[in-house]
Amino acid sequence: MGGLKNVYAIGAGMVAAHTNESATSKSVYFAHCTSEMIFITHLLAEEPEKLAGPLLADTYVTLLKGRNAWYGQMLAKGEISRDMGDSISGKGMIQGVSAVGAFYELLSQSSLSVLHPDEKKPVAPVELCPILKTLYKILIIREQPSQAILQALRDETLNDPRERIEIAQSHAFYRPSLLGQP
């Protein structure tokens, strides 16, 4: 979960900046991003950690005030730019940016597929992670502005976070081949 919380913390910072710290918007984001995190960990870990107790508390703090959240907030406010790189003076390395690219590429592999809950057809796992896809478009390929994170939350085709968690918990998703294991 460590790398994932940094990915989603950047988006949390963007949501906070674009909504003037709206508690409702941040809670909607939290529900969706944690469901994506649970889904992804069920793909990548044979025995995924439960997002509860100290891990949940650490994730919550990271999403609220960690340096990756700060980075997302400053990007959204226009106080820093992607052109400044991932190493920010006084903050250090912002790991979430490179992790967005790594997780996106990993979950986009053509050899992987999961059944889409609505369309009932196989899709790459990243297709069930709209926040990750949006962060990739904002941070890596730079084809969308940071406000796109809000649109990802408003997308009417967005799956209910509970469905994503149920998919993850009701199927044997673990794919050792994702991480190069036999």
From TrEMBL:
It comes from the Eukaryota. Residues 2-149 form the Glycerol-3-phosphate dehydrogenase NAD-dependent C-terminal domain. InterPro entries: 6-PGluconate_DH-like_C_sf, 6PGD_dom2, G3P_DH_NAD-dep_C. This is Glycerol-3-phosphate dehydrogenase NAD-dependent C-terminal domain-containing protein. It comes from Salix suchowensis. The lineage of its organism: Eukaryota, Viridiplantae, Streptophyta, Embryophyta, Tracheophyta.
